[in-house]
Amino acid sequence: QVQLVESGGGLAQAGGSLGLSCAASGSIFSTDVMGWYRQAPGKQRELVATISNGGNTNYADSVKDRFAISRDNAKNTVYLQMNSLKPEDTAVYYCQVKRRTLMSSRDYWGQGTQVTVSS
After folding, report:
1. How far apart, in whole angstroms, are the C-alpha atoms of residue 61 and residue 76?
2. Whether 61 contacts 48, CB under 8 Å
3. How far apart are CA 18 and CA 2, in angstroms?
4. How far apart are CA 102 and CA 109, in angstroms?
5. Spatial contact of 43 and 65, defined as CB atoms under 8 Å apart
6. Which stretches does DSSP call E strand in 1-119?
7. How far apart (Å, rounded) are the C-alpha atoms in residues 118 and 90?
8. Which residues of 84-100 are buried (b: 16+ CB within 10 A; e: fewer)?
């Protein structure tokens, strides 16, 4: 089992910065992909960024060049640094661990943390 606890977020002005972190308890496999998703009111949850154990990253086009995802494998923690924030970045941000093995497939989710960007 994996439990994810997010921290950070809050309120920022447009153009400002915020940082999120997500600590995972339990075993994290070297093949697990960690990432961040977000869900704005009335919208579907969408990918923000993911990072593999080896540091390969993937970003949504809407956050490229503004957000940076990183991972500390020793601490089982994933981070999201958000710069040049826009009001449309307002959402609940969720941490995810995506686990795929030969025998099973499972996604673990954090409880979510609110990010609000004022114009």
Report:
1. 26
2. no
3. 25
4. 21
5. no
6. 3-8, 10-13, 18-25, 33-39, 46-51, 57-59, 67-72, 77-82, 91-100, 105-109, 113-118
7. 8
8. ebeeebbbbbbbbbebe
Residue with tokens 């409880």: 111
| Plot region of 84 (φ>0 → left; ψ -120 to 50 → alpha; else → beta) | left
pLDDT at 101: 87
CA distances in angstroms from 59 to 27, 90, 95, listed in the order given = 25, 17, 14
Looking at per-residue confidence, does 46 or 100 come out higher?
Answer: 46
Mean pLDDT throughout 75-79?
Answer: 96
Indicate the SS3 state at residue 88: helix
Q: How many residues are listed for the chain in this entry? A: 119
In this structure, are strands 33-39 and 113-118 parallel, antiparallel, or unpaired?
Answer: unpaired
Angle at 114 between CA 47 and CA 28, to 5 degrees: 55
